[in-house]
Amino acid sequence: MKKHLGKAFLSLIATASLLVAGCGGGKETAGKPADTVKLGYFPNLTHMAAIVGLEKGFFQEELGDQITLKTQTFPNGGLFMEAMSTGQIDFGYVGPGPAMNNYLKNPAHQLLAGAVNGGAVLEVRGDAGINTLTDLDGKRVAIPVIGSTQDIMLRKALKDVGLNVKGSGGTVEMLAQAPADTATLFLQKNVDAAATQEPWGVNLEEKAGAKLLLNWDQFAWGKESTNTVVVGTKSFTEANPELTKKLLKAHVRAVEFIKQHPDEAVQLLIKHIKDLTGKELKKSEIKAAMERSTATYEVNEQVLKEMAAISKEAGYTSSDNIDGFVNLSFLQDALK
Predict the structure, then answer these.
(1) Tens-place pLDDT, residues 116-144
(2) Helices in 96-199 by DSSP H: which ranges?
(3) With contact defined as beta carbons under 8 Å apart, do 124 and 137 qualify?
(4) Which of 71, 124, 224, 298 could form a disulfide with 130 if both were Cys (CB 3.0 to 4.6 A apart)?
């Protein structure tokens, strides 16, 4: 299948990333059972479990008619974690990088389950003369956000071949750039490579003639690379253990649905984004990007520990001790 993205798709994703649906603010009173659940996610491919769960009604079915479900969308992990820290959301989907970095500063939330592995690639300009990772020596690489999961993955990949980034004693320059704008940087030759999440890798190949240096199953930790996880505030989970278990049951149902009915999952994503933006994606374009990730509720804690160590080495946190960050007890109850 030819992997390409049309202009409508790019415009849509950029627009969807800025959308914020109804949010409902204010922190839950500690110890008081909730009658409303505030769920956050990103309107993109790596958050498909959230979208499928909402479209299929899994979350509301598990919560029951007496619980109000409110949703809020976010363009990046920084804004998501800010909202979680201020009580605007109780539960949701985010990258492990922002989730860990914020936990180490303020351990008010926990990782409850995995959501997506993979979904990130390392692309290089076709004319940059980069054929191996060691060829990135002295080059400039775009990343979505400083401290992002892709930032950490790039550092891991470079470290494995004896390279490092500028500012950490190395020669590889990182440039934070919105994924939607990275193709322009490639065409202008302002960057040589990009560590990015899908569908932007496919976009770079089609729109800027990029070459795939490391596919999703080769980049950093390969198929064990954690791209998206499920997190919840301690104030919510401790006061609402049954609701937390029900939310994770819905999440597991969504993950299994994606695995068993990938075509229908794509259609649900298309419908969801169209409802948010009024624009419709092409099925072939979504499937091309979906092939570079896998839905899962499992978590590789060793990978998370290594990510935390890299984050500390980068100076993003003062500690890499993530003890207490992962709490899979609610997931284990949900799987019974």
Answers:
(1) 999 899 999 999 999 999 999 999 999 99
(2) 96-105, 149-160, 182-187
(3) no
(4) 124
**Which token pair is 27?**
């922190």
SS (H, E, C) 303-319: HHHHHHHHHHHCCCCCC
Of 289, 313, 305, 288, which Cα lies nearest the Cα of 151?
313
| Whole-structure pTM value | 0.84
pLDDT of amino acid 14: 43
- Taking the C-alpha atoms of residue 140 and residue 228, their distance in angstroms, rounded to an integer, is 26
Q: Which two tokens stand for residue 300?
A: 């590789």
- State whether residue 237 is helix, strand or coil: helix
Give me the amino acid identity at 16.
A
The H or E element spanning position 294 is: strand 293-295
Q: Which of 96, 84, 104 is closest to 234 using CA atoms?
A: 84
Query: How big, in percent rounded to 5, are the helix, strand and coil portions of the chain?
Result: 45, 20, 35
Contact 93, 318 (CB under 8 A): no
Phi and psi of 263, rounded to 5°?
-65, -45
Distance CA 113, CA 108 (A): 16
